[in-house]
Amino acid sequence: MSKLIEIIISSDPEIRNQSLGSAISGKTTAELLQECGQLEKFRSNSNNLYHKVRALFFLYAIHRFHILTASKIGSTAITPFKAYEHIINRRFEEAIKILLDVQNEKGINEGLSSSLADAYHKLAFQTLADQVKRSVRTTPGNNWMFRIGHPGDHPLKFRKELLRKDENSGLFPLLAEKTPVRMDLTHSCWSDIFFLGMDYPDGAQVLNISVDLCISGTSGKPIPPIETYLRVIDEPVIRLVSTDLETTADIQFIPEIFDFAKDYLGLLKAALIASGIVPPGMEGVELPVSVLLEKIIGPGLGLELVSQVNNIPKGSRLAVSTNLLASLISLCMRATGQTCQPDGVLEEEERRLVAAKAILGEWLGGSGGGWQDSGGVWPGIKMIKGCKATENDPEFNISNGKLLPNHTILTVQDVSAETKQKLQDSLVMVHGGMAQDVGPILEMVTEKYLLRSEKEWIARQKALTYFDQVIYFLKLGDIRKIGEITQNNFNGPIQDIIPWATTAYTERIIEKTKSEFGDNFWGFWMMGGMSGGGMGFIFNPEIKKEAQDWLLKTMLLIKKEMEAAVPFAMDPVVYDFKINEKGTFATLTDDEKALLPAKYYTLTLPRLLKKELSELSACRKSELQALSKSQKMKGSYNLFVSGLFERMIPDSKAEGQKKQDLKELLENYGFNTTLHETVKSALKSGQIGLAQNRLRTGVKISDSDAGTIENIEPNLKDSLFKTGKTALQNGELAIVTLAGGIGSRWTKGAGVVKSLHPFSKFAGKHRNFIEIHLAKNKKAANNYNVPLPHIFTTSYLTHQPIKEYLTPNGRLNNGTVYLSPGQFIGLRLYPTERDLRFYWEELSRQTLDEQAQKMRESLHNALIQWAKSNGEAENYTDNLPQQCIHPVGHWFEVPNLIINGTLLKLLETNPNLKYLLVHNIDTLGANADPVLLGYHIQNKNSVSVEVISRWIDDRGGGLAKVDNKPRLVEGLSLPHEKIEFELSYYNTNTFWISIDPLLAVFKLTLSDLPNQEKVRNAIMELARQMPTYVTLKEVKKRWGKGQEDIYPVTQFEKLWGDMTALSELKTGYLHVTRRRGQQLKEVAQLDGWLRDGSAAYIEELCEWE
Amino acid sequence: MKITKALITAAGPDQRKLPLQTLIDRDRTQRTVLEILINEIKSAGIDEIGIVIQAEDEKSFEQVLEHNSYSTVRFIHQNKKPGYGQALLSAEKFLNNESFLHLVGDHLYVNRSGQNIARQLIELAEKHKCAISTVQSTRENRIGNYGTVKAERLQGEPSLFQITRVHEKPTPTFAEQHFMVPGLRAGYYLCFYGMHVFTPLLFELLAKKAVDFPDKKLGLSESLDELSKRSRYLALEKNDSRYDIGLDYGLLKAQLALSLSGKDRDYVLSELLQFFVEKDLNNNCGNR
To answer: Touching check for B174 and chain A: CB below 8 Å?
Structure first.
């Protein structure tokens, strides 16, 4: 039997917990492929879910981290497009079958292996997600809701207490629920992820505390941060209101409840569904909600559900959204008699049911965290542990563990009141201001666990001992020791498993705190998925107040220093907190006090006041009467009225200032109004658009042939090296790093400077892209004993921050580092419906898991409405000015060097300069390699392009023969996506350029460079001949408390790769290694990049300051 | 154990007048619901029948029964306190510490086999010497109307179960967690059918509850739940029709069921057919 299969099926932990790496160490590609064959057969025949899943992860990892990196396995495009289509449509089994057939017929190669890795990886997660989905659905208490398909069959009824109107005030009773949030004192390395807890229940454990909060420094005291309300109304609608997200909706038809992404009320809708008020079985029922409401409440009646989160910003790592969902579900269950009592605390069984329904609600909404997230439903401090599935559980014989863990509330005997007080007196909770997507982290954790990667597995075992220690010292009341443990946990196991859990920002805060408070700082406490948002710092209680104030100031200061480079969603805040000893708790008010919170009325009154009295329902009239008395009585009338006026008459000054700033930006950065208007009207009329980017039909596009591509043979290396080295030493090369882009994919349109993002640790320190490029430059310069000029191209967004970054280090003045400011910008436009539909419906894209896909489609519809209501192809100005404009593509970056005089300056200080190495900021492997330079020189190329073998994720064109001429083609311009799968090589966007022939293409010579007008005209002349692409990019808009929306906007770009179509430029193509040529476009790539040795490769190229 | 007495409850605030509703029985005779129930009991061989009513309703009930020879029927006034349990406790004296047959006054039972369900129930209670209730497999969207039981099948007795837990009108959420019975279709639960044989232990449990919780409305299900834990308590599954005439259209459904299983079956069927044909014709004309 294969050793790998033995590892998978063994009941002996010694064998079962072996890492894949150790088991296949030293095997050749052929042997690995043989192992894959056996694993494939095993997983196809296995009925055990976790055997299957582990085999799938082994298969993925063998391809991704061993076969693809071990040796050259060929790069001819043999991946069938059909397999790709199956993958993106989630038909993974079909895709794998096709890919394996091709492997059997033609042998393995890079494209095929990367496709297999992708398909196995996705199938593994799909299998796990399906199992969780099944468990959630079949959990007793949830199952019936999937069988109720028509309002006529609805089995629930509202409690009678809620239907009795108060005779005096005319108000229906109000059910209010207050729910704390949760924090996790032990952070047992994300052990509460469902996939992990269900396979390894013994290792799934956390110490979870329910807390009340308030922002420190405000007059308030800590209160449950979540408030939810439910009442009957005398209108046959479901009214949903979120006071903190300032959104209301009257739902008239059942399908609207299932349209989660239409507005910000998705959580409220999910709660209605998961609680059974609108059971999931009713999805697709095209009936008015009044039919359903009549059945469960009564004729002519409806319900109103209100949520309010008190001052907790997004990304708090306190599981606000899960606890909000749980609070809403609890409220709906109370209203429909699914709890023993309508008010008070919940019983244990009811809490578990709320938690199970919250998991269902999260799944319906296409999201999901871990099983500890609904911890706020429980009171105080509790130990939550995974538990093994037994005979009566739906999970039995499918997974080791159950979906839901066990909660043990720690009593006063376990943790004394004094200890709790000590904890409260020592811990400073903060929100650092960053709001990151932790989804990829949870996937990484799962994958590493299932692979039992050695380092990570040891770390997980270590974290388990920390858990025991925290419990031990908590019982002893030794908070200082707990601080020490949480700090060790963060420094050790947490980062050993996920290096990305820490950030440069977090580390700087910790470092400063240590140096400021020395022994009085007892430790850092990592909360949730990753640091940077919600975090804890444990201090000597004597200095807590001082530390709180200092931390706030310090975080603000560091944020200010880093905000150009790191995406912050808001300013940092410090909380006051208190342990909540009740858990979620409800009250029922049935007199004239049955009114909603003031924020509700600030939100809803402006619209109500516009109505005629006769249009208001009887209850609304009674409510307004009760409100007028109530507000006056409470003495907060003035405050309430001023809030109301602020809402009704927004501040026009701020809006005016925004417009002015945008105007100045456009004027200062070379915005061409005439060109913009021409392009805009062409877009409106449909002359241009995404579909029109494509090359005309009839163009013959095929894969490049062997003669086009240069693989540097070993016997040539010496000669090429000599030529390159001589040129380097002679000062003939300068490096141009393209840093003018805005890295939309890196931060999903956050508008920060990607090149300055300290994204990964090298030599023990977080480094940014520029730092890495300069370190490579330094090593090359030292190797060849010559200073290498290095130019960073910039734009309106990146110039100032890069300049500020480089100036203090004196690098800008040392004569080797130059900045080349951008000369052109464009103004973004609202997209057209036509382009959005083309992008989402015509172009192929990865279909998501069932519910997530529904969310996406719902969001797309909402965004189409957004674009239409704002005016298709109109100027996009509804954001910060910098977020409304865009650089116009990297084609301009090299011409900018000529226009802005940088090239002239370079030539003046480096008279021997002949060649430029131009590369993207995120192509970290690109360096002044003398062999490649030698190739460029010896072949007398005008341009040499570096290409890599195409992997399945490499989308966006590549090297092709277009009408028999080799050139780079953009993915946007391919008449059909299928063609891309016939192209063997992908463009790295790294170019070796000879300056003289380049100038000649522009019809310029070196002597023309001082003549600015001539230079500009010449460049514009060529620019007009280059194709312009219409593209859709994501842009973030921030609002409220750490909220971010991502919108698609239209912009125009010209791309440098199109220069290879010019016959005047002699162009050659070099096949380089992936480590050299790969670009880091998304943060989610980082883990694979680190694990496959790419990061180590980069480090070898560097010499640090 | 010998069952000689029966008790009908008809004092609930929403059901006081229901037993007085008149229907056409299977033999084409006009009868009140009460009379149909009494006939069922008498056919089971029981003569001593107690009916728990509100004192002010006695005249109406007497009027219904005066034309018939129901000399052994006794009216028992519900004591002042509300609740199903109190209704039963009111009859403590009449029942005199004996096991008894109990029917609710707002349910009608129509069996297809012609078998007397009350008699079958009494025979089983006497055979097994324990309390027994008729139950029916009921879809989850209707369990909110009935007491529901968790039960285990008795080996070798196809329709008999041992009850282990009782809950009044559960939500499907609660039922799914605690009241699933192996062998039933998904989403179906065993719910009371409205006919029981109770032992004197029930009175002990009810009386204790009444003392322990003097301010709480005394229901029956909580005591039955306790009964299931303190003694053997069986359930007989019946798939015959049971009609809760207190529900919307309950009386109409009960009438149709009686007629369609009696002498007037063909007549009622043809009338119904006529009704639908005319409705269809009218609709078609309207569409033109």
So the answer is: yes
Check CB contact of A645 with chain B, cutoff 8 Å. Answer: no
How far is A155 from chain B, CA to nearest CA, in Å? 4
Instruction: Look at A402-411, A661-670, A1025-1034 and tell me which has the smallest mean pLDDT.
Output: A661-670
Whether B248 shows a pLDDT value over 90: the answer reads: no
Q: Cα dist. B169→A138, A156, B175 in Å? A: 22, 11, 9
CB burial of residue A968 (10 Å; 0-12, 13-18, 19+): buried
Contact B234, B130 (CB under 8 A): yes
Superfamily grouping for domain A693-739+780-830+873-1098 = Spore Coat Polysaccharide Biosynthesis Protein SpsA; Chain A (3.90.550.10)
Find, in chain B, the residue whose alpha carbon is nearest to that of A139.
B177
Residue B28: band (very low, low, confident or very high) from pLDDT cuts 50, 70, 90: confident
In a mutagenesis test of the B interface, which of A136, A142, A143 is the best target, namely the one with the most B β-carbons within 10 Å? A143
How far is the C-alpha of A859 from the C-alpha of A846, rounded, in Å?
16
Set of chain A residues whose Cβ sits within 8 Å of the Cβ of B140 = 144, 147-148, 155
In A125-284 the beta strands, taken as DSSP E runs, fall at: 174-179, 181-184, 205-215, 226-233, 238-242, 247-251
B165 touches chain A (CB under 8 A): no
Q: Using CB atoms within 10 A of its CB, is residue A221 exposed (0-12), middle (13-18) or buried (19+)?
A: exposed
DSSP-derived secondary structure letter, B28:
S
- In total, the C-beta contacts within 8 angstroms joining chain A to chain B are 45
Radius of gyration, CA atoms only, chain B = 20
Alpha-carbon distance A845 to A867, whole Å?
21
DSSP string, A470-502: HHHHHHHT-HHHHHHHHHHHIIIIIHHH-GGGS
- The answer to whether the beta carbons of residues A739 and A794 sit under 8 Å apart is yes
- The reply to whether A155 touches chain B by the CB within 8 Å rule is yes
> Among A140, A156, A336, whose Cβ lies nearest the Cβ of B177?
A140
Domains of chain B by range and CATH? 5-287 (3.90.550.10)
Query: For residues A53 and A1021, what is the distance between their CA atoms, to the nearest angstrom?
Result: 58
Residue where the block lists tokens 């739902």: A251
Give the C-alpha separation, A467 to A537, whole Å.
18
Is B186 part of the contact surface with chain A (CB cutoff 8 Å)? yes
Q: Where are the domains of chain A?
A: 3-138, 600-648, 693-739+780-830+873-1098
Are B180 and A147 in contact (CB < 8 Å)? no
Write phi, then psi, for A311 (nearest 5 degrees): 60, 25
Identify all chain B residues contacting A147, using CB atoms and an 8 Å cutoff. Answer: 140, 186-187
Asked if A147 reaches chain B (Cβ–Cβ under 8 Å), the answer is: yes
What average pLDDT score do residues B34-45 get? 90
Q: Do B141 and A148 touch (CB under 8 A)?
A: yes
Instruction: With a cut of 60, say whether residue B288 has pLDDT above it.
Output: no
